[in-house]
Predict the 3D structure of the following.
Amino acid sequence: MYTETATRSTLLEDVARGEPAAWREFNRRYGELIRRIASRRGLQPADGDEVVQMVLVKLSTTMPGFTYDRAKGRFRGYLKAAVVHAICDLRQKRDPSWVLQMESGASRLAGPVDDEQVWEKEWRMHHLGLAWPVVRVEFSDRDQRAFESYVFQGRSAADTAAELGMSVDQVYQARTRILKKLKVQIARQIAEEG
C-alpha cells in the first residue's frame, strides 16, 4: 500500500486513524533507526525492540485526532524526543535508582551534544538506507556493486576496479553519479519529512 515516496503526512494521518498497514509501514521505515539509537545508548537488541514498541504505543495514544502541521515542528524532532523518552523510561523501569544516578552524575547516557551527534548520524544513515533502494535501480549492476564496494564497504578504488573489471576512473565516475542522485533523493525525503 505504501511506497518509498508515500508522503510522511499521509502515513502519519493513517497511523492516527489506527490503520494496521500504516503501523507496519511506520515500523518498517523507522523501527531500525529506533533500534540503532537504543543500541548506541547502551541497550541490548531486545531492549531496542521494546523501545520501538514503547514509541509506537506513545504515538498511538497521542495520534488520535492528529493532523500533520509542519509549522508546529518537524517530525524528526518529535520522533527523536519520543525515542529518547522511551529509552529513559525503559531504563528507569528496569532500575528505579537510575534517575538518581543520572542526577548525581554517577551513571550517564550520552550528554546533550553527544545525543544530537548520535541522532544526526543515525538520521543521515536512515535516509541513506531509504534512498539507496530508490536510486540504485537507475544504475547498472556493475555501477551499483562498485558503489557498494567503494563507498559502503570502504574498499579502495583500485581493489574495487580490479574485482569488477573496471578502471579506477570508472569506479570514481560511478560513485560521483550515484552520490549526485542520492543527494537529490535524500533532500527530497527530508523536505517531505518535515
In short: Residues 168-193 form the longest helix (26 residues). DSSP finds nine helices and no strands in the chain.
